[in-house]
Protein backbone atom coordinates (compact mmCIF):
# COMPACT_ATOMS: atom_id res chain seq x y z
CA UNK A 1 0.00 0.00 0.00
CA UNK A 2 1.00 3.62 -0.55
CA UNK A 3 1.94 5.53 2.59
CA UNK A 4 -0.69 8.19 2.16
CA UNK A 5 -1.04 10.90 4.73
CA UNK A 6 -4.51 11.71 3.44
CA UNK A 7 -6.73 10.86 0.53
CA UNK A 8 -7.91 13.77 -1.54
CA UNK A 9 -9.83 12.95 -4.69
CA UNK A 10 -9.74 15.85 -7.15
CA UNK A 11 -10.38 13.96 -10.37
CA UNK A 12 -14.16 14.02 -10.48
CA UNK A 13 -14.29 14.73 -14.21
CA UNK A 14 -12.64 11.35 -14.77
CA UNK A 15 -15.15 9.61 -12.55
CA UNK A 16 -16.92 10.18 -9.25
CA UNK A 17 -17.23 8.42 -5.95
CA UNK A 18 -20.43 6.40 -5.94
CA UNK A 19 -23.05 7.92 -3.60
CA UNK A 20 -23.96 5.65 -0.64
CA UNK A 21 -27.68 5.77 -1.59
CA UNK A 22 -26.81 4.69 -5.13
CA UNK A 23 -24.83 1.76 -3.74
CA UNK A 24 -27.77 0.71 -1.57
CA UNK A 25 -30.23 0.81 -4.49
CA UNK A 26 -27.89 -1.16 -6.73
CA UNK A 27 -27.21 -3.80 -4.12
CA UNK A 28 -30.92 -4.24 -3.49
CA UNK A 29 -31.57 -4.53 -7.23
CA UNK A 30 -28.86 -7.14 -7.63
CA UNK A 31 -30.24 -9.17 -4.74
CA UNK A 32 -33.97 -8.85 -5.32
CA UNK A 33 -34.68 -7.78 -8.88
CA UNK A 34 -32.60 -10.01 -11.09
CA UNK A 35 -35.31 -11.04 -13.57
CA UNK A 36 -34.66 -10.47 -17.26
CA UNK A 37 -37.08 -7.72 -18.34
CA UNK A 38 -37.70 -9.65 -21.58
CA UNK A 39 -39.05 -12.73 -19.79
CA UNK A 40 -42.67 -13.37 -18.99
CA UNK A 41 -43.30 -13.91 -15.29
CA UNK A 42 -43.57 -11.84 -12.15
CA UNK A 43 -39.81 -11.36 -11.56
CA UNK A 44 -39.43 -10.11 -15.11
CA UNK A 45 -42.35 -7.73 -14.72
CA UNK A 46 -40.73 -6.35 -11.55
CA UNK A 47 -37.60 -5.69 -13.60
CA UNK A 48 -39.64 -3.94 -16.30
CA UNK A 49 -41.28 -1.74 -13.68
CA UNK A 50 -37.90 -0.85 -12.23
CA UNK A 51 -36.59 -0.10 -15.70
CA UNK A 52 -39.45 2.22 -16.52
CA UNK A 53 -39.47 4.02 -13.17
CA UNK A 54 -35.72 4.53 -13.63
CA UNK A 55 -36.27 5.90 -17.12
CA UNK A 56 -38.75 8.39 -15.64
CA UNK A 57 -36.22 9.52 -13.03
CA UNK A 58 -33.45 10.02 -15.61
CA UNK A 59 -35.86 11.84 -17.96
CA UNK A 60 -37.10 14.05 -15.12
CA UNK A 61 -33.54 15.12 -14.25
CA UNK A 62 -32.96 16.47 -17.78
CA UNK A 63 -36.49 17.74 -18.51
CA UNK A 64 -37.31 15.16 -21.19
CA UNK A 65 -40.06 12.60 -21.67
CA UNK A 66 -39.22 9.04 -20.56
CA UNK A 67 -39.70 7.75 -24.11
CA UNK A 68 -36.96 10.09 -25.29
CA UNK A 69 -34.33 8.18 -23.27
CA UNK A 70 -32.31 5.23 -24.63
CA UNK A 71 -30.17 3.46 -22.02
CA UNK A 72 -26.70 2.66 -23.38
CA UNK A 73 -23.53 1.20 -21.86
CA UNK A 74 -21.83 4.62 -21.53
CA UNK A 75 -21.81 8.11 -22.98
CA UNK A 76 -19.17 7.07 -25.53
CA UNK A 77 -21.72 4.64 -26.97
CA UNK A 78 -24.44 7.32 -26.84
CA UNK A 79 -22.25 9.76 -28.76
CA UNK A 80 -21.36 7.16 -31.39
CA UNK A 81 -24.96 6.03 -31.84
CA UNK A 82 -26.30 9.56 -32.13
CA UNK A 83 -23.69 10.68 -34.65
CA UNK A 84 -23.92 7.61 -36.88
CA UNK A 85 -27.70 7.55 -36.68
CA UNK A 86 -27.98 11.22 -37.53
CA UNK A 87 -25.84 10.85 -40.65
CA UNK A 88 -27.67 7.71 -41.73
CA UNK A 89 -30.95 9.66 -41.59
CA UNK A 90 -29.55 12.92 -43.01
CA UNK A 91 -31.67 14.34 -45.85
CA UNK A 92 -30.07 14.46 -49.32
CA UNK A 93 -27.75 17.44 -49.73
CA UNK A 94 -26.97 17.67 -46.03
CA UNK A 95 -23.70 15.85 -45.38
CA UNK A 96 -21.92 18.35 -43.13
CA UNK A 97 -21.38 18.20 -39.37
CA UNK A 98 -20.19 21.38 -37.67
CA UNK A 99 -18.34 20.58 -34.45
CA UNK A 100 -15.87 22.13 -32.03
CA UNK A 101 -12.24 20.99 -31.83
CA UNK A 102 -12.61 20.43 -28.07
CA UNK A 103 -15.13 17.59 -28.16
CA UNK A 104 -14.53 14.44 -26.12
CA UNK A 105 -12.71 11.71 -28.11
CA UNK A 106 -15.93 9.66 -28.27
CA UNK A 107 -17.23 12.45 -30.50
CA UNK A 108 -13.90 13.46 -32.07
CA UNK A 109 -12.90 9.95 -33.14
CA UNK A 110 -16.43 9.09 -34.32
CA UNK A 111 -16.31 12.23 -36.48
CA UNK A 112 -12.96 11.11 -37.96
CA UNK A 113 -14.59 7.77 -38.80
CA UNK A 114 -17.58 9.46 -40.43
CA UNK A 115 -15.23 11.66 -42.43
CA UNK A 116 -13.70 8.52 -43.97
CA UNK A 117 -17.20 7.52 -45.02
CA UNK A 118 -17.87 10.79 -46.80
CA UNK A 119 -19.24 13.12 -44.13
CA UNK A 120 -17.73 16.59 -44.26
CA UNK A 121 -16.73 17.83 -40.81
CA UNK A 122 -16.18 21.55 -40.27
CA UNK A 123 -14.49 22.58 -37.03
CA UNK A 124 -15.36 25.90 -35.47
CA UNK A 125 -12.40 27.50 -33.67
CA UNK A 126 -12.59 28.36 -29.97
CA UNK A 127 -11.14 31.42 -28.23
CA UNK A 128 -8.48 31.38 -25.50
CA UNK A 129 -11.18 30.57 -22.94
CA UNK A 130 -12.41 27.63 -25.02
CA UNK A 131 -15.69 29.19 -26.19
CA UNK A 132 -16.70 28.73 -29.81
CA UNK A 133 -16.07 31.85 -31.90
CA UNK A 134 -19.58 32.98 -32.82
CA UNK A 135 -18.81 34.68 -36.15
CA UNK A 136 -16.88 31.63 -37.30
CA UNK A 137 -19.76 29.38 -36.31
CA UNK A 138 -22.27 31.50 -38.20
CA UNK A 139 -20.12 31.27 -41.34
CA UNK A 140 -19.81 27.45 -41.04
CA UNK A 141 -23.47 26.50 -40.59
CA UNK A 142 -25.49 26.55 -43.81
CA UNK A 143 -28.05 24.65 -45.90
CA UNK A 144 -25.66 21.68 -46.28
CA UNK A 145 -25.37 21.19 -42.51
CA UNK A 146 -27.05 18.08 -41.15
CA UNK A 147 -25.91 18.48 -37.55
CA UNK A 148 -24.23 20.95 -35.23
CA UNK A 149 -22.47 19.00 -32.50
CA UNK A 150 -21.06 21.05 -29.64
CA UNK A 151 -20.56 19.84 -26.07
CA UNK A 152 -22.22 21.74 -23.23
CA UNK A 153 -19.34 21.57 -20.69
CA UNK A 154 -15.79 20.60 -21.55
CA UNK A 155 -14.17 17.82 -19.52
CA UNK A 156 -10.68 19.36 -19.40
CA UNK A 157 -11.40 23.01 -18.66
CA UNK A 158 -15.08 23.06 -17.65
CA UNK A 159 -15.91 25.78 -20.20
CA UNK A 160 -19.63 26.05 -20.97
CA UNK A 161 -21.04 26.90 -24.39
CA UNK A 162 -24.16 28.89 -25.20
CA UNK A 163 -26.09 25.82 -26.33
CA UNK A 164 -29.54 27.52 -26.76
CA UNK A 165 -27.93 30.16 -29.01
CA UNK A 166 -26.05 27.56 -31.02
CA UNK A 167 -29.19 25.38 -31.30
CA UNK A 168 -31.13 28.39 -32.62
CA UNK A 169 -28.51 28.91 -35.30
CA UNK A 170 -28.61 25.21 -36.24
CA UNK A 171 -32.40 25.14 -36.45
CA UNK A 172 -32.57 28.41 -38.44
CA UNK A 173 -30.42 26.62 -41.01
CA UNK A 174 -32.56 23.47 -40.99
CA UNK A 175 -29.91 21.44 -39.14
CA UNK A 176 -30.25 19.34 -36.00
CA UNK A 177 -28.45 20.07 -32.72
CA UNK A 178 -26.54 17.56 -30.61
CA UNK A 179 -24.78 18.29 -27.33
CA UNK A 180 -22.61 16.05 -25.17
CA UNK A 181 -23.96 16.99 -21.72
CA UNK A 182 -21.89 14.48 -19.75
CA UNK A 183 -19.87 17.00 -17.74
CA UNK A 184 -22.69 19.51 -17.34
CA UNK A 185 -25.18 17.24 -15.59
CA UNK A 186 -25.01 17.65 -11.82
CA UNK A 187 -22.81 20.74 -12.08
CA UNK A 188 -25.22 23.14 -13.73
CA UNK A 189 -28.93 22.97 -14.59
CA UNK A 190 -29.53 20.78 -17.62
CA UNK A 191 -32.92 20.91 -19.32
CA UNK A 192 -33.00 19.58 -22.86
CA UNK A 193 -36.03 21.73 -23.74
CA UNK A 194 -34.37 24.93 -22.56
CA UNK A 195 -31.14 23.93 -24.29
CA UNK A 196 -33.28 23.24 -27.37
CA UNK A 197 -31.20 20.21 -28.35
CA UNK A 198 -32.38 17.32 -30.51
CA UNK A 199 -29.80 14.82 -29.24
CA UNK A 200 -27.78 14.69 -26.03
CA UNK A 201 -25.60 12.22 -24.15
CA UNK A 202 -25.20 11.46 -20.45
CA UNK A 203 -23.15 9.17 -18.24
CA UNK A 204 -23.96 7.88 -14.73
CA UNK A 205 -20.42 7.62 -13.42
CA UNK A 206 -19.86 11.37 -13.68
CA UNK A 207 -22.74 12.06 -11.27
CA UNK A 208 -21.89 9.66 -8.41
CA UNK A 209 -23.56 6.76 -10.20
CA UNK A 210 -22.14 3.47 -11.50
CA UNK A 211 -19.79 2.94 -14.43
CA UNK A 212 -21.06 1.09 -17.50
CA UNK A 213 -24.35 2.92 -17.96
CA UNK A 214 -25.22 5.96 -20.03
CA UNK A 215 -28.16 7.50 -21.81
CA UNK A 216 -28.90 9.02 -25.18
CA UNK A 217 -31.64 11.62 -25.45
CA UNK A 218 -33.47 11.71 -28.79
CA UNK A 219 -36.18 14.33 -29.20
CA UNK A 220 -39.63 12.80 -29.83
CA UNK A 221 -40.40 12.25 -33.47
CA UNK A 222 -36.81 12.15 -34.70
CA UNK A 223 -35.69 8.97 -36.40
CA UNK A 224 -32.87 7.01 -34.79
CA UNK A 225 -31.19 3.75 -35.75
CA UNK A 226 -29.59 1.22 -33.40
CA UNK A 227 -25.85 1.03 -32.97
CA UNK A 228 -25.95 -2.46 -31.42
CA UNK A 229 -28.14 -4.94 -33.28
CA UNK A 230 -29.65 -8.24 -32.19
CA UNK A 231 -32.50 -7.60 -29.78
CA UNK A 232 -35.73 -5.68 -29.26
CA UNK A 233 -34.60 -3.96 -26.05
CA UNK A 234 -34.94 -0.18 -25.65
CA UNK A 235 -37.77 -0.07 -28.16
CA UNK A 236 -35.55 -1.82 -30.71
CA UNK A 237 -32.93 0.93 -30.50
CA UNK A 238 -30.28 -0.80 -28.38
CA UNK A 239 -29.95 -4.57 -28.33
CA UNK A 240 -28.68 -6.36 -25.22
CA UNK A 241 -30.19 -7.42 -21.92
CA UNK A 242 -30.73 -4.31 -19.83
CA UNK A 243 -28.24 -3.75 -17.00
CA UNK A 244 -31.01 -3.29 -14.45
CA UNK A 245 -28.82 -2.71 -11.39
CA UNK A 246 -26.79 -0.07 -13.28
CA UNK A 247 -29.95 1.57 -14.60
CA UNK A 248 -31.45 1.66 -11.09
CA UNK A 249 -28.17 3.17 -9.82
CA UNK A 250 -28.18 5.76 -12.62
CA UNK A 251 -31.76 6.73 -11.71
CA UNK A 252 -30.87 7.10 -8.03
CA UNK A 253 -27.86 9.27 -8.96
CA UNK A 254 -30.22 11.45 -11.01
CA UNK A 255 -32.58 11.77 -8.03
CA UNK A 256 -29.61 13.05 -6.01
CA UNK A 257 -28.58 15.71 -8.55
CA UNK A 258 -30.36 18.39 -6.51
CA UNK A 259 -27.80 17.78 -3.71
CA UNK A 260 -24.89 18.38 -6.08
CA UNK A 261 -26.52 21.49 -7.52
CA UNK A 262 -27.19 22.83 -4.03
CA UNK A 263 -23.46 22.46 -3.32
CA UNK A 264 -22.41 24.28 -6.53
CA UNK A 265 -21.78 27.63 -4.78
CA UNK A 266 -19.54 26.01 -2.15
CA UNK A 267 -17.70 23.97 -4.80
CA UNK A 268 -17.09 27.16 -6.84
CA UNK A 269 -15.64 28.88 -3.77
CA UNK A 270 -13.31 25.95 -3.10
CA UNK A 271 -12.22 25.85 -6.73
CA UNK A 272 -11.49 29.59 -6.70
CA UNK A 273 -9.61 29.22 -3.40
CA UNK A 274 -7.45 26.56 -5.02
CA UNK A 275 -6.70 28.75 -8.05
CA UNK A 276 -5.96 31.83 -5.93
CA UNK A 277 -3.69 29.77 -3.67
CA UNK A 278 -1.77 28.40 -6.64
CA UNK A 279 -1.34 31.87 -8.15
CA UNK A 280 0.03 33.07 -4.83
CA UNK A 281 2.65 30.31 -4.82
CA UNK A 282 3.41 30.52 -8.53
CA UNK A 283 2.31 33.87 -10.03
CA UNK A 284 3.30 32.67 -13.53
CA UNK A 285 0.69 29.86 -13.40
CA UNK A 286 -1.92 30.13 -16.14
CA UNK A 287 -5.58 29.48 -15.40
CA UNK A 288 -7.14 27.82 -18.46
CA UNK A 289 -10.72 27.56 -17.19
CA UNK A 290 -12.87 30.68 -17.62
CA UNK A 291 -12.48 32.84 -14.53
CA UNK A 292 -13.17 36.37 -13.28
CA UNK A 293 -15.95 38.01 -15.26
CA UNK A 294 -16.04 35.01 -17.62
CA UNK A 295 -16.52 32.65 -14.63
CA UNK A 296 -20.22 32.22 -15.47
CA UNK A 297 -19.07 30.26 -18.55
CA UNK A 298 -17.54 27.53 -16.45
CA UNK A 299 -18.98 24.61 -14.51
CA UNK A 300 -18.44 24.94 -10.79
CA UNK A 301 -15.93 22.18 -10.17
CA UNK A 302 -13.17 22.32 -12.80
CA UNK A 303 -9.85 24.15 -12.76
CA UNK A 304 -7.27 23.59 -15.47
CA UNK A 305 -3.93 25.20 -14.60
CA UNK A 306 -0.62 25.37 -16.43
CA UNK A 307 2.51 25.36 -14.26
CA UNK A 308 5.33 26.82 -16.41
CA UNK A 309 8.57 24.92 -15.89
CA UNK A 310 6.93 21.90 -14.22
CA UNK A 311 6.26 18.51 -15.77
CA UNK A 312 2.60 17.53 -15.21
CA UNK A 313 3.41 13.81 -15.04
CA UNK A 314 5.98 14.41 -12.33
CA UNK A 315 3.53 16.61 -10.42
CA UNK A 316 0.89 13.89 -10.61
CA UNK A 317 3.38 11.39 -9.18
CA UNK A 318 4.31 13.76 -6.35
CA UNK A 319 0.68 14.55 -5.55
CA UNK A 320 -0.23 10.87 -5.72
CA UNK A 321 2.62 10.08 -3.31
CA UNK A 322 0.94 12.52 -0.95
CA UNK A 323 -2.51 11.01 -1.44
CA UNK A 324 -3.91 13.54 -3.91
CA UNK A 325 -5.54 12.37 -7.16
CA UNK A 326 -5.52 14.80 -10.08
CA UNK A 327 -5.02 14.33 -13.79
CA UNK A 328 -3.00 15.90 -16.56
CA UNK A 329 -4.33 18.18 -19.20
CA UNK A 330 -2.59 16.05 -21.77
CA UNK A 331 -3.06 12.50 -22.93
CA UNK A 332 0.69 12.01 -22.77
CA UNK A 333 0.51 8.37 -21.81
CA UNK A 334 -0.15 7.54 -25.43
CA UNK A 335 2.62 6.12 -27.54
CA UNK A 336 3.07 9.35 -29.43
CA UNK A 337 3.13 11.42 -26.22
CA UNK A 338 0.63 13.72 -27.84
CA UNK A 339 -0.49 16.86 -26.02
CA UNK A 340 -4.18 17.49 -25.39
CA UNK A 341 -6.08 18.72 -28.49
CA UNK A 342 -8.35 20.70 -26.15
CA UNK A 343 -5.46 22.72 -24.70
CA UNK A 344 -3.96 23.11 -28.16
CA UNK A 345 -7.26 24.54 -29.41
CA UNK A 346 -7.06 27.11 -26.60
CA UNK A 347 -3.68 28.19 -27.95
CA UNK A 348 -1.36 26.38 -25.53
CA UNK A 349 1.94 25.10 -26.92
CA UNK A 350 2.79 21.38 -26.68
CA UNK A 351 5.13 22.19 -23.82
CA UNK A 352 2.51 24.19 -21.92
CA UNK A 353 0.04 21.42 -22.47
CA UNK A 354 2.45 18.96 -20.82
CA UNK A 355 2.70 21.35 -17.87
CA UNK A 356 -1.03 21.41 -17.25
CA UNK A 357 -3.02 19.79 -14.46
CA UNK A 358 -6.77 19.44 -14.13
CA UNK A 359 -8.34 19.66 -10.68
CA UNK A 360 -11.99 18.62 -10.57
CA UNK A 361 -13.91 18.86 -7.32
CA UNK A 362 -17.23 17.44 -6.13
CA UNK A 363 -19.75 17.93 -3.34
CA UNK A 364 -17.54 15.63 -1.24
CA UNK A 365 -14.54 18.00 -1.47
CA UNK A 366 -13.81 19.87 1.77
CA UNK A 367 -11.94 23.10 2.48
CA UNK A 368 -9.46 21.09 4.58
CA UNK A 369 -8.65 19.02 1.48
CA UNK A 370 -8.04 22.15 -0.58
CA UNK A 371 -5.77 23.58 2.14
CA UNK A 372 -3.84 20.28 2.25
CA UNK A 373 -3.54 20.23 -1.57
CA UNK A 374 -2.15 23.78 -1.54
CA UNK A 375 0.33 22.81 1.17
CA UNK A 376 1.59 19.85 -0.88
CA UNK A 377 1.64 21.92 -4.08
CA UNK A 378 3.73 24.55 -2.31
CA UNK A 379 6.27 21.87 -1.36
CA UNK A 380 6.34 20.69 -4.93
CA UNK A 381 6.49 24.08 -6.63
CA UNK A 382 9.17 25.30 -4.25
CA UNK A 383 11.00 22.04 -4.94
CA UNK A 384 11.39 21.23 -1.28
CA UNK A 385 12.87 17.80 -0.64
CA UNK A 386 12.10 16.19 -3.99
CA UNK A 387 12.26 12.48 -3.20
CA UNK A 388 12.43 11.39 -6.86
CA UNK A 389 14.58 12.73 -9.73
CA UNK A 390 13.30 13.62 -13.18
CA UNK A 391 15.73 12.61 -15.94
CA UNK A 392 15.32 14.51 -19.20
CA UNK A 393 15.67 12.20 -22.24
CA UNK A 394 18.70 14.30 -23.27
CA UNK A 395 20.45 13.05 -20.13
CA UNK A 396 19.78 9.40 -21.06
CA UNK A 397 22.98 9.11 -23.08
CA UNK A 398 25.46 6.22 -23.39
CA UNK A 399 27.39 7.02 -20.21
CA UNK A 400 24.13 7.15 -18.25
CA UNK A 401 22.48 4.09 -19.79
CA UNK A 402 25.53 1.86 -19.51
CA UNK A 403 26.47 2.95 -16.00
CA UNK A 404 26.55 -0.25 -13.94
CA UNK A 405 25.06 1.54 -10.95
CA UNK A 406 21.88 2.32 -12.91
CA UNK A 407 19.19 -0.37 -12.80
CA UNK A 408 16.63 0.30 -15.53
CA UNK A 409 13.06 -0.86 -14.92
CA UNK A 410 10.64 -0.83 -17.84
CA UNK A 411 7.03 -0.77 -16.60
CA UNK A 412 5.34 -0.46 -19.99
CA UNK A 413 2.31 -2.50 -20.96
CA UNK A 414 2.93 -5.41 -23.33
CA UNK A 415 1.05 -3.66 -26.13
CA UNK A 416 3.11 -0.48 -25.76
CA UNK A 417 6.31 -2.53 -26.10
CA UNK A 418 5.12 -3.60 -29.54
CA UNK A 419 4.97 0.04 -30.61
CA UNK A 420 8.23 1.42 -29.21
CA UNK A 421 11.56 -0.10 -28.22
CA UNK A 422 12.74 0.45 -24.65
CA UNK A 423 16.06 1.49 -23.11
CA UNK A 424 18.99 -0.94 -23.36
CA UNK A 425 19.65 -3.18 -20.34
CA UNK A 426 16.04 -2.82 -19.20
CA UNK A 427 14.37 -5.15 -16.74
CA UNK A 428 10.81 -5.55 -17.92
CA UNK A 429 7.98 -5.78 -15.41
CA UNK A 430 4.64 -4.12 -14.69
CA UNK A 431 3.39 -1.72 -12.06
CA UNK A 432 1.06 -4.38 -10.65
CA UNK A 433 3.96 -6.85 -10.33
CA UNK A 434 6.05 -4.20 -8.56
CA UNK A 435 3.20 -3.37 -6.23
CA UNK A 436 3.06 -6.95 -4.99
CA UNK A 437 6.80 -7.71 -5.23
CA UNK A 438 8.80 -4.47 -4.82
CA UNK A 439 11.61 -6.51 -3.32
CA UNK A 440 12.46 -7.80 -6.80
CA UNK A 441 14.45 -4.57 -7.08
CA UNK A 442 17.98 -4.14 -5.73
CA UNK A 443 17.97 -1.53 -2.97
CA UNK A 444 21.65 -0.60 -3.43
CA UNK A 445 21.28 0.55 -7.07
CA UNK A 446 20.04 3.77 -8.69
CA UNK A 447 16.67 2.72 -10.05
CA UNK A 448 15.55 4.39 -13.25
CA UNK A 449 11.89 3.83 -14.19
CA UNK A 450 10.65 4.18 -17.73
CA UNK A 451 7.12 3.92 -19.14
CA UNK A 452 5.70 4.66 -22.58
CA UNK A 453 4.81 8.35 -22.34
CA UNK A 454 6.19 9.46 -18.97
CA UNK A 455 2.93 9.44 -16.99
CA UNK A 456 3.13 6.11 -15.16
CA UNK A 457 6.84 6.07 -14.28
CA UNK A 458 6.69 8.99 -11.77
CA UNK A 459 3.79 7.30 -9.99
CA UNK A 460 5.80 4.05 -9.84
CA UNK A 461 8.89 5.92 -8.61
CA UNK A 462 6.92 7.62 -5.84
CA UNK A 463 5.33 4.29 -4.93
CA UNK A 464 8.81 2.79 -4.52
CA UNK A 465 9.87 5.83 -2.51
CA UNK A 466 6.99 5.13 -0.15
CA UNK A 467 8.32 1.55 0.07
CA UNK A 468 11.64 2.84 1.33
CA UNK A 469 13.70 2.86 -1.89
CA UNK A 470 16.08 5.82 -1.96
CA UNK A 471 17.76 6.48 -5.31
CA UNK A 472 14.88 6.74 -7.73
CA UNK A 473 14.48 8.53 -11.03
CA UNK A 474 12.24 8.36 -14.10
CA UNK A 475 12.56 9.38 -17.72
CA UNK A 476 10.36 12.40 -18.54
CA UNK A 477 8.33 11.65 -21.65
CA UNK A 478 9.12 7.92 -21.33
CA UNK A 479 10.17 5.77 -24.27
CA UNK A 480 8.42 8.21 -26.62
CA UNK A 481 10.49 11.09 -25.22
CA UNK A 482 13.74 9.10 -25.47
CA UNK A 483 13.05 8.26 -29.11
CA UNK A 484 12.22 11.89 -29.84
CA UNK A 485 15.29 13.42 -28.18
CA UNK A 486 17.80 10.62 -28.80
CA UNK A 487 16.86 9.15 -32.20
CA UNK A 488 20.40 7.87 -32.89
CA UNK A 489 20.67 6.07 -29.56
CA UNK A 490 17.12 4.75 -30.00
CA UNK A 491 18.05 3.21 -33.35
CA UNK A 492 21.37 1.88 -32.10
CA UNK A 493 20.43 0.48 -28.68
CA UNK A 494 16.61 0.51 -28.43
CA UNK A 495 15.35 -2.78 -26.99
CA UNK A 496 18.81 -4.36 -26.68
CA UNK A 497 19.83 -6.62 -23.82
CA UNK A 498 16.43 -6.49 -22.13
CA UNK A 499 15.13 -9.20 -19.83
CA UNK A 500 12.16 -9.91 -17.59
CA UNK A 501 12.53 -8.74 -14.03
CA UNK A 502 12.49 -11.65 -11.65
CA UNK A 503 13.78 -11.71 -8.13
CA UNK A 504 16.90 -13.82 -8.73
CA UNK A 505 18.09 -11.69 -11.63
CA UNK A 506 17.65 -8.49 -9.67
CA UNK A 507 19.70 -9.91 -6.85
CA UNK A 508 22.51 -10.86 -9.21
CA UNK A 509 22.47 -7.48 -10.96
N1 LIG B 1 -18.15 13.03 -22.95
C1 LIG B 1 -17.46 13.71 -22.02
C2 LIG B 1 -17.47 15.20 -22.05
C3 LIG B 1 -16.73 13.03 -21.05
O1 LIG B 1 -16.02 13.71 -20.14
C4 LIG B 1 -16.74 11.62 -21.06
C5 LIG B 1 -15.94 10.86 -20.10
O2 LIG B 1 -14.86 11.26 -19.71
C6 LIG B 1 -17.49 10.97 -22.04
C7 LIG B 1 -18.18 11.71 -22.98
C8 LIG B 1 -17.52 9.47 -22.11
O3 LIG B 1 -18.25 8.95 -21.02
P1 LIG B 1 -18.24 7.40 -20.70
O4 LIG B 1 -17.09 7.18 -19.78
O5 LIG B 1 -19.56 7.13 -20.04
O6 LIG B 1 -18.09 6.69 -21.98
Overview of the molecule:
With 509 residues, the protein is α/β, with parallel strands linked by helices. The chain has 3 domains: 8-16 and 261-381, Aspartate Aminotransferase, domain 1, CATH 3.90.1150; 20-255, Aspartate Aminotransferase, domain 2 (3-Layer(aba) Sandwich), CATH 3.40.640; 389-508, Oxidized Rhodanese, domain 1. 40% of the residues lie in helices and 14% in strands. The protein is built from 22 helices and 19 strands. The chain has a 7-stranded mixed sheet, with helices on both faces. A 6-stranded parallel sheet has the order 14-18-17-15-16-19. The structure holds pyridoxal-5'-phosphate. The site of pyridoxal-5'-phosphate has 12 residues, from helix 3.
Structural class: alpha/beta
Q: Give the name of the CATH architecture of the largest domain.
A: 3-Layer(aba) Sandwich
**Total count of strands:** 19
Task: State the CATH topology of the largest domain.
Answer: Aspartate Aminotransferase, domain 2
Binned, the helix content reads: 25-40%
What does the main sheet amount to? Answer: 7 strands, mixed
Low-confidence stretches: 330-336
Which strand order do you get reading across the main beta sheet?
2-8-7-6-5-3-4
| Count of runs of 4 or more consecutive helical residues | 22
What binds here, in terms of ligands, is: pyridoxal-5'-phosphate
Count of separate structural domains: 3
Distance between the terminal alpha carbons, to the nearest Å? 26 Å
Shape call: globular
Q: CATH first level of the largest domain: which class? A: Alpha Beta
Q: What is the mean pLDDT? A: 93
Q: Proportion of β residues?
A: 5-15%
**CATH homology superfamily of the largest domain:** Type I PLP-dependent aspartate aminotransferase-like (Major domain)
Radius of gyration: 25 Å
